[in-house]
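RETRY 2/3 - previous attempt timed out on the joint model. Re-submitting the same 375-residue input unchanged.
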Amino acid sequence: MSRQSNRATDSKKMNSELFTLTYGALVTQLCKDYENDEEVNKQLDKMGYNIGVRLIEDFLARSSVGRCHDFRETADVIAKVAFKMYLGITPSVTNWSPAGDEFSLILESNPLVDFVELPDNHSNLVYSSLLCGVLRGALEMVQMAVDVRFAQDTLRGDNVTEIRMKFIKRIEENLPVGDE
Amino acid sequence: MACVSAAEPERQQKIRSWMGHFRLVKCSPGSFDACSGSCRVSLRTDAVRKMTVHNLYIFDRNGSCLHYSEWNRKKQAGISKEEEFKLMYGMLFSIRSFISKMSPLDMKDGFLAFQTSRYKLHYYETPTGIKLVMNTDLGVPNCRDTLQQIYSTLYVEYIVKNPLCVLGESLQSDLFSSKLDSFIRALPFFSVRAA
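RETRY 2/3 succeeded.
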């Protein structure tokens, strides 16, 4: 019995290590290819966007979450359902702006940055930019334009990782233009 | 599933009382058939009634038709396929906005289905704007879960998770088409020959 559970936790640990190492290899290769931190950040964001656009469909298929009625509900679903499903962590939702259109996700741990230290010559690199792109792409597919950025990053010396998300506007669906 | 000849009144009575439990009954001419959900009983003397799926459309959020298959369509629309897809999408868009405007109560799920005297159109839409439309005959009860299953086990698995499939264009995946075809044919309310 205990052997079975060891194997289960071992395989989970294996998967997350493989994931962390794969992401690290990706960022390293991008740094070699582009040699400019800003460019790497942009590329990571773009890749994240492409992931997010598809990930949202998988998310909707696997969770039975319906349409969210407001931004607060969206924030709760992102933190409690989506992050838990894909990264196994549950960030907390805090720092709501007075208008209710901006909030922060505080991540105690970030599985992407296990074992990672930023070297001095890459001080502008936002290592987990992929996450920003994923959130942006996924929300765009459910008609929400948002701006996502890292406000605090443990790799840059802060205590926690903080992702700041701001609601920009609702994307209205348009009737396709006819040919005639 | 029972099949009763019309010449046994006592058994007819018994069958009538447990009609509600039956789904689809295959009958020979001159006997009862019943459908659960509506508890309709009709005496058919000629062709047997079978339930079936006529066709299926999948649209994306921009109105492009990603996929169309038909199984039992006896009458064509008389216009080209592109026009038909545009007509279908335009109708769905108008119905959805009509429904939300005219609803006397707060909207929950919105548009579910419409039915005519010959067929029923079932509709399912995801929050990402993927719309699944299935035309079946009248015997089929609510099949939103079927459409949701098509979305989650077929569309997401074979299209979204395939990096070579470009989203937003007509789907080119043979695997998806064949899996969808076998899924539809395996449905309990599908039969090859419509009434």
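The beta strands of chain B are 32-35, 40-43, 53-59, 65-70, 113-115, 119-125, 131-137. Closing ticket.
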